[in-house]
Amino acid sequence: MVRFFVSAEDLEKEDVSLTGENAQHAKVLRLKPGEMVLLCDGEGREAVCKVESTDEWLLRAMERRESQSEAAVKVSVYMALPKADKLEHVIQKATELGAYEIVTFPSVRCVSRPDEKSLKKKLERWEKIAASAAEQSGRGRIPKVLVLGSFSEALTRAAQADKALMFYEHEAALTLKMALSSGGYSTVSLLTGPEGGLEEAEVTQAREVGLQVCTLGRRILRCETAPLCALSAVMYDAGEF
Fold it and tell me: Which one of 66, 85, 102 terminates a domain?
């Protein structure tokens, strides 16, 4: 079923008119009166609607419900600021895989350190990428994209999850499978480093605030591969695949 993201206020109306990009999209799809579409508020609520008229793209709400495409487990992806457009790729794919939110932050070895002005522009682009990927993949919720000011802030926030995991290339004892084996989690945070990896002192700091430090295997994964690998494994373990 075709879906459109609208405001929470519009979702509660009996009759909704599509405007702007939504109206253009409906026109391109050549929707006809009587066809059913899905309106989503981007926060996990949706409404099944019938096309009443194509003159003003008027829709009539038939049923409201919680989104049926969201994962039962809320997984937050924490990725240290990477170079170039690598974060864009992670945002798009993590959204498709069902991430609850994507969080980026600076760490010691981060090469990319955008100033406040450029970061604001980047954030706007990242939010658009998340919204587009959510629509394409049939999500009922658009993942939030957050930028934190420090590594310490990222650790403190990540540690609040039921399963708070960090991935480090020099860890050998604890695998992701072992970390997930105890089950009983509804929220998970997955923290990965930049291109140069995490420093030993940062790993020690993570352990001190309660994160479990894991390995993703004997091969070194790129900074844009590691979070998607871990996210996929968690979704599989949670029964989402």
Answer: 66
SS3 content of the chain, % helix, strand, coil (to 5): 35, 25, 40
Residue entry with tokens 């009166």:
33
pTM of the predicted protein model? 0.89
Q: How many structural domains does the chain have?
A: 2
Domain membership of residue 46 as a residue range: 3-66
Map residue 103 onto helix, strand or coil. strand
Chain segment 33-91, per-residue pLDDT in tens: 999 999 999 999 999 999 999 988 999 999 999 998 999 999 999 999 999 999 999 99
β-bridge mates for residue 147, sequence order:
104
- 151-187 pLDDT, tens digit per residue, is 999 999 999 999 999 999 999 899 999 999 987 899 9
Strands laid side by side in the 3-5 sheet: 3-5, 36-40, 45-53, 58-66, 15-17
Contact between 174 and 62 (Cβ < 8 Å): no
Are the C-beta atoms of 109 and 197 separated by less than 8 Å?
yes
User: Do residues 37 and 86 share a domain?
Assistant: no
- In the DSSP assignment, the letter for residue 63 is E
Give the span between the Cα atoms of 107 and 93, in whole angstroms.
23
